[in-house]
Amino acid sequence: MMNCTRRDIAKLALAALPASRLLAKPNSKFGGVQIGINAPYSFHGMPADADSVLQDLLQLGLSAVELRSQPVEQFFGAPVIPGLGRNATPEQRAAQLAAAEALQKWRLAAPMSKFKEFRKKYEDAGVLIEILKFDGVDSMSDDVADYAFNLAKELGARAISCEIPVSKTKWFGQFAAKHKMMVGYHGHTNITSPEAFGRPESWETAMSYSRYNGINLDIGHFVAGNSKSPVEFLKKYADRITHIHLKDRKLDNGPNTVWGQGDTPIKEVLQLMKKEKYRFQGTIEFEYKVPEGSDEMKEIARCVEFCREALA
For 39-310, CATH number? Predict the structure, then answer.
């Protein structure tokens, strides 16, 4: 018997659809609120190339995305930086360093015009790249920081997102101001380190450095780390929020849960976005354990439907 992957089945299903359905573009703007997803991060263990990510977005009916830079750059042949385990050998570490240096050279030589092809590929399918996420920002040279903003602009992004020490946001905020593009700094649950984005004061410090320094507010992490609702913080700084990450977690550094089973006010936040006509994206970041008998795509589809119903 022929073995079929989930992706093969999806392709067969697409082929069986009427032409009118195939021509229809996705629309995940519900009640005026744009819903997207952090990709390919949320597609754990699945192919992370540009075409596979786009296919998954279309399968889910998502018309916007916070896209990592890797699928874009690797689509055009950028070097891949290998990951390292805890017990990495000196040779593996040297190979990673060499790959990072090769990537920097590639980035500085890349003609910006070709990235318009990538933007067209996604937009023709009906997907907007609203946020471009970069890893390793705090180790970038000034030239590569410029490249990051130029790439984001070529892709049509409204903002860059990243994870970076608070003290480095003064440096990176200068490039945000130069390019007149917002940066959303992502936070987790560490509320003790002055370099971590966890407490409201962390973002307030970063925002004092540049008017283009902003907030990628992860409402699940905020609840788990601060043991309180993120709603008042969201209201106070709505004009500095680039996008929010949607997930459900328990208080007091509790675990990720199926949406609706934790302490995160996802529905309240979405309805506030609708009421106040906030323009920033509500971005699904899928992290909870897949229940037995289900699969990741089914669960992400449940999250999309949760948003649709909350915004009806």
Answer: 3.20.20.150
- pLDDT for 23 equals 56
> How is 48-94 classified by DSSP, letter by letter?
-SHHHHHHHHHHHT--EEEEEHHHHHHHTTPPPPPP--TT--HHHHH
What count of other Cβ atoms lies within 10 Å of the Cβ of residue 37?
29
Amino acid in position 195: E
For the packed helices 142-154 and 90-109, what is the interaxial angle rounded to 10 degrees? 60
| Residue 302 Cα to chain centre, angstroms | 18
Burial of 235 from C-beta contacts in 10 A (0-12 / 13-18 / 19+): exposed
Q: Which of 242, 194, 236, 195 is nearest to 218 (CA)?
A: 242
For the chain, the domains span 39-310
User: What is the identity of the amino acid at 90?
Assistant: P
* Residue 103 DSSP SS3: helix
In whole angstroms, what separates CA 147 from the centre of its chain?
19
Q: List pLDDT tens digits, range 21-46.
A: 445 799 999 999 999 999 999 999 89
What predicted TM-score, i.e. pTM, was given to this entire model? 0.91
Given a contact cutoff of 8 angstroms between Cβ atoms, the answer to whether 40 and 62 are in contact is: no
Positive or negative, the Cα torsion across 120, 126, 130, 131?
Answer: negative
Convert 31-60 into a string of H (helix), E (strand) and C (coil). Answer: CCEEEEEEECCCCCCCCCCHHHHHHHHHHH
* Surface-to-core class of residue 34, CB atoms within 10 Å of its CB (0-12 exposed, 13-18 middle, 19+ buried): buried
Q: How far apart are CA 193 and CA 46, in angstroms?
A: 34
Region 121-137 average pLDDT? 97
Q: What is the token pair recorded at 237?
A: 């700084």
Contact between residue 227 and residue 262 where contact means Cβ atoms under 8 Å apart: no
Partners of 103 in the beta sheet?
Answer: none
